Amino acid sequence: MTGLNPKHYILERENLQGLFNVLTESGYHVIAPTVGEGAVIYDEVDTADDLPVGWRDEQTNGTYRLEKEDSETVFGYTLSPQSWRRYLSPPEVKLWQAHRTNGSFTVESNDDPPPRYAFIGVRACELHAIQIQDRVFMQGDFVDPTYKARREGLFIVAVNCGRAGNTCFCTSTNTGPEATDGFDLAMTEVSIPDRHFFLIEAGSDKGAEVLEALQCRPAEGTEIYAAQRIIAEARSTMGRTLETDGLKDLLYRNADHPHWDRVSQRCLSCANCTLVCPTCFCMTVEDVTDLAGETAERIRRWDSCFTTDFSYIHGGSVRASNRARYRQWMMHKLATWVDQFDSLGCVGCGRCITWCPVGIDITEEAAVIRTQDIGITKGLTGE
């Protein structure tokens, strides 16, 4: 890399493999988008050839389709149904294991060091989701050691969006489509006739070290402008809009709005929205033993506020109805989260809209309550 320390550099498409090489040689396990199971998924990959070159997704209410195009675009999809949290806060974690021997027992804690991950292809909304989970798991009175260990060893390569999906609304939540912080490297893909390159910049000292090892050159003004135009196009073509002004108070004063009943008649309580959401963090802890009673384990697993068992206490579930569970989820994302963590719990990725089997749209539900603001609040009871 040459130049007088400019901010932006050019990584030619044919040199993208160099990024994988540098990260792998630095001891990282590279996690990046690839095609699997009929979708773009995040998985450990070996080379740039594993990326979803030429694949484009189409998403709308309750619908996801992946199509191959005659294109060399690497990051032409919008979002994977998965989120990066599955690597930072895994769906299942063994907390400890106990063994019985000669009338006594020993406990083995799960102290194995986690792998050092490098994420390639993190969108701006997903960066904000990671930052939100940082506040949940690392910045409060109680720190999650599993999340902390994985997060502290993480290297993030963000990719700015070149197009917005039909269910995206990150401009409404001020979380995209351009990555502004929270990354080590950020790239914008520019694929135009006779040119295919990545505008790249460092966001940390670690990122600068990796950038120094790549075959890059300082960007020219026309190249920066081309990248900015691509991001501007994505910003102007959002598929959804969520009006956030006064949203918390709006939902609070309409906790008993009759629209919650109408939504609950459609909701299946399947928990899809919480499983694809990049900020959800509901969990449960289970103790299991083998049939001989010689070994016991304590396991933490993802859970969902849409299950009746999640809010079960002695005597029954606190939220026994679909109405109570859907309202709890939406009000937590858009209202009570603000009181807890000083931000919305929604980053506008739109996954919950795409992967809801009946196509419930959180932006539509909020808009209905806003247009029918009747201020009915009796308290957030479980019904």
Describe the structure.
A hairpin with a 2-residue loop joins strand 4 (55-60) and strand 5 (63-68). By secondary structure, this protein is an alpha+beta fold. The strands form four sheets. An eight-stranded mixed sheet has the order 3-2-8-9-10-11-1-12, sandwiched between helices. It is 30% helix and 25% strand. The protein has twelve helices and 16 strands. Helix 8 (259-266) packs across helix 10. The relative contact order is 0.16. It has helices at residues 16-25, 85-88, 124-138, 145-152, 205-213, 221-235, 247-252, 259-266, 272-276, 322-341, 351-354, 362-371; strands at 9-12, 29-36, 39-44, 55-60, 63-68, 92-101, 104-109, 117-122, 155-159, 185-192, 195-202, 216-218, 283-289, 295-302, 312-313, 316-317.
Q: What's the N-to-C terminus distance?
A: 63 Å
Q: How much of the residues is beta strand, in percent? A: 15-25%
Q: Please state the overall shape, judged from the principal axes of the Cα atoms.
A: globular
* Run of helices and strands: EHEEEEHEEEHHEEEHEHHHHEEEEHHH
Strand order of the largest sheet: 3-2-8-9-10-11-1-12
- Roughly what percent helix? 25-40%
Radius of gyration: 23 Å
Q: Strand count, sense and closure of the main sheet?
A: 8 strands, mixed
Classification by helices and strands: alpha+beta
Tally the helices: 12
Low-confidence stretches: 1-5
The overall pLDDT, averaged over residues, is 93
Number of strands: 16
